[in-house]
Write a structure and sequence with these properties.
With 121 residues, the chain is mainly beta. The chain has no helices and eleven strands.
């Protein structure tokens, strides 16, 4: 069974930094794109950043220049370095990945359980 487990969330003051981690466990033959999404209370889930297996990145306009996504393929882990945090960054952050399992022919999409990030003003 494939699982994505996030960590690194917490409470931080505006202007501070946090680094989120997401590790994929289980039988993962190949992991394509990985990314981070976030959802504030009462709001729609939105894309934060993505990274391909080759390391190509894309970030949302709202966090461009402040957040950096990276990955360690040997550890099946994706990171989100968040700097210059703002109160509007407060949300539950979810890890997402497209994963190919052994004996399967199609990638499947998986979500982590989420980690809370709270930025105080």
């Amino acid at each position: 069974q494939v699982q994505l487990v996030e960590s690194g969330g917490g409470l931080v003051q505006a202007g501070g930094s946090l680094r989120l981690s997401c590790a994929a466990s289980g039988s993962t033959l190949s992991i394509n794109a990985m990314g981070w999404y976030r959802q504030a209370p009462g709001k729609q889930r939105e894309l934060v950043a993505t990274i391909t297996s080759g390391g190509s990145t894309n970030v949302a306009f709202s966090v461009k220049g402040r957040f950096t996504i990276s990955r360690d393929n040997a550890k099946n882990t994706v990171y989100l370095q968040m700097n210059s945090l703002k109160p509007e960054d407060t949300a539950v952050y979810y890890c997402n990945a497209d994963i190919l399992k052994p004996y399967n022919t199609h990638y499947m999409n998986y979500w982590g359980q989420g980690t809370q990030v709270t930025v105080s003003s």
